[in-house]
Amino acid sequence: MCEVTVLFDGYSKKFDDGTMDANCTCTLIKGLKLIIVDTMTAWDRERIIEALTQQNIEPANIDYVVCTHSHADHIGNNNLFTNAEHIVDGYELCPGVKVVASAGHTPEDVTVLVDTTKDGEKTRFAITGIRVLPLFSEDISLHL
């Protein structure tokens, strides 16, 4: 089974002057492969390296990078992961982890579906680019 770790929570703040400050959720999936979903802004480079170091992982060890869409706050550090395969859509990365096209924030959105066990229960997480959500965790038969 895979382990899902949110390295950084995303946020979106709109200010009275009409400007906005936003960043994506950055998620690490550990299983048969190491997968990072959404690499934040270019200004977050050191934060990502530090978070991976705390997990005993170097950027060179990441097998796959998935960006849920192509906004700057989701792709800013893709260049850290030069050994990784960068995935767009319709791909099973390893047993229990697949990337699917999904309706969302932009026309090219994808969602990463992760099958795992949480608190002894089988569950499926959906990493959407907005949040990391367990789907129908009470009834595995309802999973996508």
From TrEMBL:
GO terms for cellular component: cytosol. Transmembrane segments: none annotated. It comes from the Eukaryota. Residues 23-144 form the Metallo-beta-lactamase domain. It is found in: Cytoplasm, Cytosol. Its main location: cytoplasm. One of its GO terms (biological process) is RNA 3'-end processing. Endoribonuclease that catalyzes the hydrolysis of histone-coding pre-mRNA 3'-end. Involved in histone pre-mRNA processing during the S-phase of the cell cycle, which is required for entering/progressing through S-phase. Cleaves histone pre-mRNA at a major and a minor cleavage site after the 5'-ACCCA-3' and the 5'-ACCCACA-3' sequence, respectively, and located downstream of the stem-loop. May require the presence of the HDE element located at the histone pre-RNA 3'-end to avoid non-specific cleavage. This is Metallo-beta-lactamase domain-containing protein 1.
